[in-house]
Amino acid sequence: MTPRQSRTDEICDALRRAILEQALKPGTKLPEDALGESFGVSRTIARHALGQLAAEGLVDLRRNRGATVARPSWEDARDLFDVRIGLERTVISRLAGRLTAAQIRRLQEHVRTEEAARGQSDPIAIRLATEFHLLLAEMTESPVLVRYVRELCLRCGLTLALHGRPHSSECAINEHLEIIDALREGKTEAATRSMEQHLESVAKRALIEPSEQAVPDLTAILASYARA
Amino acid sequence: MTPRQSRTDEICDALRRAILEQALKPGTKLPEDALGESFGVSRTIARHALGQLAAEGLVDLRRNRGATVARPSWEDARDLFDVRIGLERTVISRLAGRLTAAQIRRLQEHVRTEEAARGQSDPIAIRLATEFHLLLAEMTESPVLVRYVRELCLRCGLTLALHGRPHSSECAINEHLEIIDALREGKTEAATRSMEQHLESVAKRALIEPSEQAVPDLTAILASYARA
DNA sequence: TGGGATTTGTTCGTATGTATT
DNA sequence: GAATACATACGAACAAATCCC
């Protein structure tokens, strides 16, 4: 029935989710064989997917040496946040005063989810915070904007995982609410300022202690993502 | 001697150049076979390259129907220019007042090249104008910025090729000079305004007459790009 | 240092899906 | 509307590079 179709997009999505949730930490090796096995495809497909993710900067690809989850350097980090701020400024200017009531409810609901997850593990907090920004980008209905913001958010997440200090997401939630309010009232300037300050403070927290850990079992991690 | 290494990047570069110079026009079919033959590789490599370009939005990839040079729709076009303006604003703010004398000479030299090519074919003018913006982006030394600006510039070039009216690059050259001057004098505001107006007026010209033409001989076109 | 095991780079064959007559 | 021609999707196998003991 279901014609066997290109699974490389699914694999990219799965890997992106895994990276976003920090199930795959920066530096983790991603052998083509193991990936193919996890998703039930051959190396060709896995390889293709890795190429895509490398183009997005989520995966480092060194010749004849395989793929690893990207480990953004400290200088990269500053650069990523910088460009991200510029892009999210565009997001804001597109959305200010143009959000529907339903969209605002959707955003507020997401922040409530963030509040409910307060105190949980850091990875979950980072994931939820990232998804808030993704949600905003999607509401612009601009394909390019969505793609770039998503790329940068994920890569910024990687830097947080690498260089960020733990338990740093306490204040971010209020800042999200602030942004929503400014957007709803059409205060472009205020929203922009909030967003800039918000991202700036997130970036500031991304500058400490390089956390190294052993590489865990890849297939076990991917098992839950393969069938999703 | 030279160990045969991954050529997919070279192929991407070659195709990007061909697209930039409008040797490959929007809508042109890009069969894996023909590409592989042109570059002396198998379909697998050509396929991989096409995947990369599709991720950049330069190539449309429809399942089981092959690849074609992207044909940005009218709505896409507006979106592309919009995001591009935001990104190039970031470029400006990074460069204003920080350019070395050598960099300024480099930019002015490029504009002289543009002037020298005045009256030549439209494709050449578009290519040179695009390269000016690429040059600026590269001077920021920000990998992300370079990548995004390059993607958007190329895609905007596609829209100009599709929807733009001919002989429209006359005034652009002076605008480039204006931007250089403002950058040199560190006038961030002025440079930003110039850049915005410049891109806005370029975008305005990208809204007319859909030019259709027959698909020319692919292998002949690619012959000169394959060995470069 | 060297050699075997492992992983990547590439080609090519087959199956499947799409366009055309 | 079916048969044919053609291009793509995927996988198995081989060659080359790297890693590890």
What does this structure look like?
- Two copies of one chain form a homodimer.
- Chain A is 66% helix and 4% strand.
- By secondary structure, chain A is mainly α.
- Chain A has two domains: 3-70 and 213-227, Arc Repressor Mutant, subunit A (Orthogonal Bundle); 74-206, Four Helix Bundle (Hemerythrin (Met), subunit A), CATH 1.20.120.530.
- Chain A has a two-stranded antiparallel sheet.
- In chain A, a hairpin with a 3-residue loop joins strand 1 (59-62) and strand 2.
- In chain A, helix 1 crosses helix 3 (43-55) and helix 5 runs antiparallel to helix 6.
- In chain A, 39% of the residues are buried.
- Chain A binds chain B through residues 5-6, 8, 44, 47-48, 51-52, 55-57, 63, 76, 79-80, 82-83, 86-87, 89-90, 142-145, 148, 152, and chain B through 5-6, 8, 44, 47-48, 51-52, 55-57, 63, 76, 79-80, 82-83, 86-87, 89-90, 142-145, 148, 152.
- Chain A binds a DNA duplex (21 and 21 nucleotides) through residues 3-6, 31-33, 41-45, 47, 63-66.
